[in-house]
Amino acid sequence: MSNSVLFDAPGPKAKRLSRILSIGFGALVIGGLGYLIYLLAREREIFNGTTEPGLFDSSRWDIFEDPELWGFIGQGVINTLTAAGISAVLAIILGVIMALLRTSNKIWVQIPTTAILEFVRGMPVLLMMLFILLSFSTGALWAVVIALTLYNGAIIGEALRAGLAALPKGQNEAGLSLGMTRMQSMFLVQFPQAFRQMLPVIVAQLVVLLKDTSLGFIVGYPELLRSTMNNLSSFFGSRYTFSFFMVTLAIYLTMNISLSIFARYVAKKTSSVKN
Amino acid sequence: MEVLFENFDRYLVGFWMTLQLLLVSGFFALIIGTLIAMLRISPLGSMRVFATAYTELARNTPLTLVLFFCAFLLPYLGTDYSYPVLAIIGLSFYTSPFVAEALRSGINGVALGQAEAARSLGMRFSQTLIEIVLPQAFRMVIPPLINVFIALTKNTSVAGAFFVVELFTIGKELANANGDAVILVLSGIAIFYLAITIPLGFIAARLEKKWVVVK
Amino acid sequence: MKRSAKFSLLATFGVAALVLSGCAASTTEEATSAAPEGTAAEAPMFAAGSTMARLADAGKVTIGTKFDQPLFGLVAPNGIPVGFDVEIAIMIAAELGISEENINWVETVSANREPFIESGQVDFVVATYTINDKRKEIISFAGPYFLAGQSILVLADNDTIKSEADLVGQPVCSVTGSTPAEKLAELGAVTFLTDTYTNCLEPLRTGAVVAVSTDNVILAGLAFQNEGQFKIAGDAFTDEPYGIGVLKDDTEFRMWINDLLEASYQDGRYQTAWDTTAGVLLPFRAAPMPDRY
Q1: Same domain for C79 and C200?
Q2: Where in the sequence is the domain holding C209, given as residue range(s)?
Q3: Gap from B37 CA to chain C (nearest CA, Å)
Q4: What angle, rounded to 10 degrees, do the helices at B167-177 and B8-40 form?
């Protein structure tokens, strides 16, 4: 519900008060941020008396002039995107399969699928990655991809199922009356609509998938987080850890926010007229 | 199987820490999330901007980076908390925007007519909110909130990489120590997580069915 | 188009630029290969059917090593690891007639060394791999080729910790799943475990832990990277023999590597490997005799 329903339109005095409070709050926030930056930027003494330069000191950022370093970081980005890309495609495929199985009218298909679904949704992705890596001796990449596929496939499957359930029953009946088999009706009539309907949810889940690739660090997959915080940090020493953190944060924010904006753009483009 | 029985006390240690992380972070995430939700619908522009920026930042940062900040940079800045406390700070921050989104969707789900009726009766903003909107929103909010909590349960596993001894850390420790029984050891860990998430999932489904509001 | 969509496009270009630079880096990394000694001999002759013959014929080898251990196995920004373990691995490959460019380096973290060997994802592992009986049940070791020892790193001005006895009940940092971590638990220290050794340094600086404990050579690398802040306290209090991990039943390969190691002790290759890597910091220690079991 819109805000205007909850209270009267503000009069001039209320507007002025509102503006003053707004500016006051804004100043508070900016002040807080400034203090945080000050804390990070000042020198500090370590336990035994030697001083370390502040976190924005140039001595902590000089290695970033080296293009080879950026190449290594770029490789981390590639690995992240590769794992995310493969997992996304496989997860969508798995999601379709799960949705089909769950809406099956055969009990002996539905119950095991539901059991597997609950199992996969209840386990932490990290645990799944470790499990797959150690039990099945796949490489690090496939441990990450399979775990992400299973987990996100289950979620996407549920979203598709909700989308299918939300369709008017007439769609399925129309398909059947045209002589289609249940499968044909599913694929030609219902799934496309369910997909379009649930696209925002699905793309939101893909953003989560991209974030979760960072969990691959635990199984040694050289994605972005591991490349910077583990490998480069070890190579250059802990003096640069914060710098790597800032760079990694910036890259992740860029990737994720871009994906979110793209998601919203797609959602707007494909939403049907009645919405 | 003896592996499981011999190390059962270690499993419990991890399980207890996971529970603590879940309950305390959940509590703080609720508080922060409610604050953020209120800021989002506030009449003050700067509050809305702040809440939106906060939400975007928290939702688009991987949890690993958030916990990294809490475990390494907060002590650098001078805080003196133990690592579980730092993990709780990180988990609360990370979960709060999802709580805020769940609350907002719940509030938005209350029919517009309710608020209009309240306004037409002359109720103030606070009265409308507290006596009409929130009680109805509460029912719509619980199932998605439970889902947020299920996600939080699973996210506590990431804290294991940052000096916190919870279920996942125990899992790695035991898997390393018993290289031949890895599947068994990790299955034990999975069972403990499922012991929390599956009941929560059932509760959410039941509540959703019970409270479904026919619009 | 809308501003936010424009921003998103710009941001995508930025990320794409990073991706392209990554591509560029990975293609150049095929070409570059800092090539010290490891000269590939002419195709050597091996007993048919042996691992050595298989690898020599393939002309390629996949080696597991650490990517985050200073002095022993540390990956440089060009993607190639450097260190003492790496040099030993290069030596073995060279003896198989495989030059450095044809080595495929795989990172083996402590958790996956045995699974990777068992499944054949790597041909052998040289990764600060401590030999112990439990691991011998799953895989087998050539060597030892180096004798490290667990030691303690403290802040430079800390004089209260002089030996491992002072660690009882104290908070100490180490890496999950490593032998030093188990030893610390045995000793009765309160362990704080993480994934990488460099992560242990910050808790040490803030005082959350009083010491970091792992193999002395790793600690030396950490101390060196942070001049003046840390020091090693006391002497090594365990023996950590580093071995080369191979498949459990591949006795032929194991013995061949042992022969190679012994030869390298005599003809100076071992010394050169040490001098060009860890020897920059640490004094040379007499190489241990391989254990032929």
Answers
A1: no
A2: 150-233
A3: 23
A4: 150
